């Protein structure tokens, strides 16, 4: 060989630098895998509206006929089929603004509906778990169709005086999968936040 003295130097360099770095890298991976925290669901709460917000299928269709100027007999029949096939029964609750005469379909009505449901659930879960709001570090809210400004997470942070560094995420427009996505996001954030 032309440079016989370089090969042993590179060989020594490989064993003295690369192998220890590889060992440290593998130790870090093993440590990270072992130290990832398990996240548990401690409790949950479901919002149950006032009994005055309960409506039967017949009353829902009657309301569509009375207030739905743009609904034809065909669209009302379609609504009836939806009510029957999607498991909506005669003990279904609807938002209070939709029961007004005429129904209030507005951002303000949507905000009142969101506040009633969210504050009811948050109050319930805080009372059940006895968790102090200053210990909350992650907040994930999901709502399929209503996405106001300021956001629903901002509404909660302000009402419950959550700490200023709380990590808040607002998921919207995701349909039925939003709940699963929110749980997965919260789990990931709690694992990362805990390290």
Automatic annotation (TrEMBL):
Catalytic activity from the UniProt record: a very-long-chain acyl-CoA + malonyl-CoA + H(+) = a very-long-chain 3-oxoacyl-CoA + CO2 + CoA
Parts of the chain that traverse the membrane: 13-31
GO cellular component: membrane
GO biological process assignments: fatty acid biosynthetic process
Key word Transmembrane present: yes
FAE domain: residues covered: 34-193
Keyword vocabulary terms for this entry: Acyltransferase, Membrane, Transferase, Transmembrane, Transmembrane helix
Gene Ontology terms, MF aspect: fatty acid elongase activity
Enzyme class, broadest EC rank: transferase
InterPro entries: 3-ktacl-CoA_syn, FAE1_typ3_polyketide_synth, Thiolase-like
Enzyme Commission no: 2.3.1.199
Protein name: Very-long-chain 3-oxoacyl-CoA synthase
Organism of this sequence: Opuntia streptacantha
